[in-house]
Amino acid sequence: MPTTQNSKPTILYIDDEQDNLDVFKSTFRPYYNIYTALDAVSGRELLKNDTLGIDLIVSDQRMPIMTGIDFFASIVSDYPDIMRILLTAYTDVNAAIDSINRAKVYRYIVKPWEEEELKTAIDQALEFQHLNRKNKELLQQLAEYNKTLEQTVAERTEELRLANELLRKINDEKELMIEQLKATNEEKSRLLIQTREQAIQLENLARQDALTKLANRRHLEISLNYEFERAKRHNRLLTIALLDIDHFKQVNDMFSHQIGDDVLRQLGQILPSCVRASDLVARYGGEEFALVFSDTGLDEARNVCEHIRQTIETHTWSELHPDLKLTCSIGLSTDTSVSNYEKMLSLADAKLYEAKRSGRNRVAV
What we know:
The protein is an alpha/beta fold. It has helices at 18-28, 40-47, 68-75, 93-101, 115-167, 171-207, 217-234, 248-255, 257-273, 298-314, 341-357, and strands at residues 10-14, 33-37, 56-60, 83-88, 107-110, 238-245, 280-285, 288-294, 328-333, 363-364.
């Protein structure tokens, strides 16, 4: 995520009502550096100040001088990396499509906005911006090839223009040139599809642990923060479990690190099979895993974790090595009265170590 002073992203908010600007600043100042403008002209002047380092613009649609869509459309070419979110009191489908197609708006949010929805949209936009910047390396690698391809297409197009004067009399040559153009277009389409697929793969890599194919710690923290805030705000149940493979170091030392990696890969298949599709399973670090059970109380989560513990203990690990046997220890936390999700993880971690001190191969609550 892009950052500026104080390691916070910088947002420009444009609205022609001062009260709206004040509410926005007071709501989001804890999370971001905020600059405001009463109209599009003032907003563009702030954009010219490179020292501000603006990462994202939130703009109202209905404003004097220039609408939000027109303003965004006017800055797309000059500031392509700045993310754009449009606020409007009108749910006009055509306006939404126009904002996406012409103004390259990331999200279209209906007013009056809710803090949780707008903050989530802002954070997702900034995350998307971060992934786009990571994609630039790949795009730069493709740039030279695309440049050559575009030059080839331009040359072929010119050849076709000149050839058309003769092709009115030579039908066979005309058919040949059409086939050549078709082949060129197919190749360009194939490359465009390949680029899109690679962009999707890069986005998955940013969220996924390479070894286990589970969610990585970064994705866990983003998702858990959202679930924790949702549970506190709406008084919903939330349970977190931390799972650690007992004596995993001995697996690496006795059977090799390759066997250890194979164990982790199989756990990446076993754990998701034991929980609901709505539950999150993530690799927390090393041989430690985290499970997030939304809308789930302690008793239900404990039963699931006991099933997981038994599944790991009875799994046929001998397929990896004849002498290999594994157990796990699990600690649970369901206390959402703490100040943040990190404290809740700490409580689960304390229960995990309680399970280990009590002899391992057990679930502690």
